Amino acid sequence: MQAFVYSASSLLVRGSSLPPARSAVGTQAVFRGKQLPWFRAQQAASKNMMLPRTYIQASAASSPSTTAAPVVEQAPPVVKRLADYKPPPFFVDEINMVFNLDPTQTRVSATLKMRANSKVDSKGMLELDIDPSMKISTEAFSINGTKLPASSITQSKNDKLVINLPAQLSGYASGFELQTEVIINPQENKALEGLYMSGGNFCTQCEAEGFRRITPFLDR
Questions:
Q1: For residue 142, which of 96, 110, 115, 94 has the smallest C-alpha distance?
Q2: Separation of CA 206 from chain center
Q3: What is the distance between the alpha carbons of residues 52 and 50, in angstroms, rounded to a whole number?
Q4: pLDDT in tens, 61-97
Q5: Which of 44, 61, 107, 117 gives the lowest tally of CB atoms within 10 Å of its CB?
Q6: 168-to-10, 88, 104, 141 alpha-carbon distances in Å
Q7: Model-level pTM?
Q8: Which band of pLDDT confidence, cut at 50, 70 and 90, is reported for residue 40?
Q9: Alpha-carbon distances, residue 68 vs 2, 64, 65, 71, 78 (angstroms)
Q10: Which residues 6+ apart lie within 8 Å of 34 measured at CB?
């Protein structure tokens, strides 16, 4: 903090008040060997009390230091418009889920009954919304009971799980069952979305985008 030193003629004159402090924090005056806060020095001046020149000091160095609170920069909110939504290339007609609850390692197994949207070209890929904190058990992923190779499952930078669908599987065009398995940490979930712990209880909040924190899904 910068220190300001004023002359006696500008600080304390009989019958006059002190000028406003240039540094409101930490500026002090010394009167008869005692340090006075700035407003007390003003009171002394208003009562026609003269402070000797030798005792007048105004220095920020003699005051308690103050530390400014750190500025936390927040990322700008992502704008999502209804006009940006597009029909999905697949529909989920039914989902069955099994939870093996644990405060830090809850295992979620899901079976999705899906069918292709004939009006949208999927280009042989299925994109599911996920939460980046979940652990993907790729060895448990299968379609119609046939295990998918790990190389066919990738995680993109925009929090999508991309599955390259094997075209040779029978029933792919009309409908299929996708089995997935992930591990999530409810105790460390502070977003209060998805599956989280509160007061020792397991709680869920799926709207508007909380379900993707539980299992990979077309979370629209």
A1: 110
A2: 18
A3: 6
A4: 444 555 666 776 777 877 888 888 889 999 999 999 9
A5: 61
A6: 92, 22, 39, 17
A7: 0.63
A8: low
A9: 15, 13, 10, 9, 30
A10: none
DSSP tag of 61: G
- 180, burial (CB in 10 Å: exposed 0-12, middle 13-18, buried 19+): buried
Place of tokens 């009171």: 43
Tell me which amino acid residue 191 is.
A
- Name the token pair of 69: 């609170």
Task: Write 33-39 long-range contacts (CB < 8 A, 24+).
Answer: 35/62
Residues 6+ apart with CB under 8 A from 118: none
Q: How far apart are CA 170 and CA 63, in angstroms?
A: 80
Q: What is the dihedral of CA 142, 143, 147, 153, to 10 degrees?
A: -60
As given in the structure block, the two tokens for residue 61 are: 């160095």
